[in-house]
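Would you mind writing out the residues of a protein together with its fold in token form for me to study?
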Amino acid sequence: MDASHFERLANMYHAAPINRLYGNRLTVSEGAAEIVWDVRADFFHAVSALHGSAYFKLLDDAAFFAANSVVPDTFVLTASFHVHFLRPVTGGAVRAEGALVSEGRHLLVAEASLFDADGHEVALGSGTFSRSAIPLTPSIGYA
């Protein structure tokens, strides 16, 4: 796969409004993706730990881009995603690592793990992703 594809995927990710809100950083390589994010208290639930929606987002995004890294022409869509929460996160940076597990004609399977600042795995997830008819173009930030 062409390295420029990975760079354009990262550009598309960083251009999305929600990622400007989070301020996270994505790197993509063939069959893999990594997201680093500095946890902020405004993403905490009532007992001062990171809300599960943030875990989901980081895991889904890492797995998604691991899957889309091998699809050079179209956007993939999350068909299903399952999360296991292992530990609370109360601050510091977190890192999500995604890896492609299986690539079929229409569906791709990818997994992701989320690690806290001390390197402890705090969550893991797995998803199924579908190739879509949406082309990867500059109009969606793929530039």
Notes: The chain has a mean pLDDT of 97.
